[in-house]
Amino acid sequence: MEYVHYSVMKDEILAHLIPPEDRPAYMVDCTCGEGGHTYLFLSKYPNLQITGLDRDSGIQQKAIERMKEFGSRFTPENIWFDEYFKNYDGPPLDLVLFDLGISSYHYAESERGFSFKKGEELDMRLDKTAPISALDVVNGYQEERLSDVIYKYGEERYSRRIARAIVEKRKLSRITKSDELASIIYKAVPSGYRYGHIHPATRTFQAIRIEVNRELDRIEPALKGAIAALRSGGRIAVISFHSLEDRQVKWLFKGLGEGDSPTIKILTKKPLIPTDAESKENPPSRSAKLRIIEKL
Ligand SMILES: C[S@@+](CC[C@H](N)C(=O)[O-])C[C@H]1O[C@@H](n2cnc3c(N)ncnc32)[C@H](O)[C@@H]1O
User: Fold this and answer.
1) CB under 8 Å to 50, separation ≥6 — which residues?
2) Residue 290 DSSP code
3) Over the stretch 78-104, which tens digit does the pLDDT of each residue have?
4) Ligand 1 in contact with 99 (CB < 6 A)?
5) Which of 35, 82, 122, 164 has the highest CB neighbour number within 10 Å of its CB?
6) pLDDT at residue 197, rounded to an integer
7) Sign of the dihedral through C-alpha 75, 81, 86, 92
């Protein structure tokens, strides 16, 4: 089987997340994906058990296949990470990893319309049973709501023009394909914006995906749940890829790590970022930020 995702900041993650080696140790990889990070940990630490969460059963199948050699040391769970921690009753955790967002698999293989470069049906759901897909957002949301989503989750300055163009187009016929949506956006923005360093549809596609999967609503409850599940001295590492995510992580950690009775110690006053060599080798990693805490 081919694994298409490049796991970011591997060295930094391994340097800061070190399980005790004199007893069974427990880790939850909250965003297991194809299991790039999980594979490294299971290979390195024979006493480590990892539960790998992913709400996407398609990508999870790839991780299950990849982790076969580790037998019962790997347990997959097809669940949203915030849901997982709601009723956590497992052993106190030594390590927790979040590598937020979606994987290269989603663009390259999922056929769910994540990529504006492909002509796929607009879906973008990680959970195939979820009630709302990208089709519903693009064809069903009122113009103002659509514009708000694109502005808030895409930080797209032409959100109004883009939402207007989408609404005009769908009056004629439903917008069903990702390349069709990309072309509407391309035509809606000023010509100078079409030739920037990212495709003009990038931010809108990101926004719709975040809305469909309610990605930003899940981070804070999951982090709180993960901290509660951690043993004292246990660590959590969070890799985020855009400022909306990083801001949430930063402020939650600040709130719990400062003041008279802190419950966590912040190990990264400033987030760690990929080395120049990594950014060069894997350009999408350029925007990664890594924050790490330890439970007191
Ligand atoms: C960036 S990828 C992880 C890549 C992985 N660390 C690796 O090295 O192969 C993020 C994964 O988390 C999943 N995911 C995103 N948000 C999630 C959530 N709230 N709950 C569960 N899974 C989630 C996505 O389906 C995706 O497969």
Assistant:
1) 27, 28, 29, 38, 41, 42, 73, 74, 75
2) E
3) 999 999 999 999 999 999 999 999 999
4) yes
5) 35
6) 80
7) positive
The alpha carbon of 83 and the centre of ligand 1 are apart by a number of angstroms equal to: 14
CB 59 within 8 A of CB 35: no
Of 38, 54, 97, 210, best ligand 1 pocket probe by most atoms within 8 Å of the beta carbon: 54
Residue 1 has pLDDT above 90, yes or no: no
Return the H-helix or E-strand segment holding 29: strand 25-29
Q: Measuring from atom 27 of ligand 1, which residue has the nearest CA?
A: 33
pLDDT at 172: 97
Return the structure tokens found at 227.
Answer: 């901290």
Query: DSSP string of 189-255?
Result: S-GGGGGSSS-TTHHHHHHHHHHHHTHHHHHHHHHHHHHHHEEEEEEEEEEESSHHHHHHHHHHHHH
Q: Write the pLDDT tens digit of every residue in 176-202.
A: 999 999 999 999 999 989 988 889 999
**Selection from 25, 103, 96, 114 nearest residue 61 by Cα:** 103
% of the chain at pLDDT higher than 70: 100
Q: Which atom of ligand 1 sits closest to the CA of residue 79?
A: 21
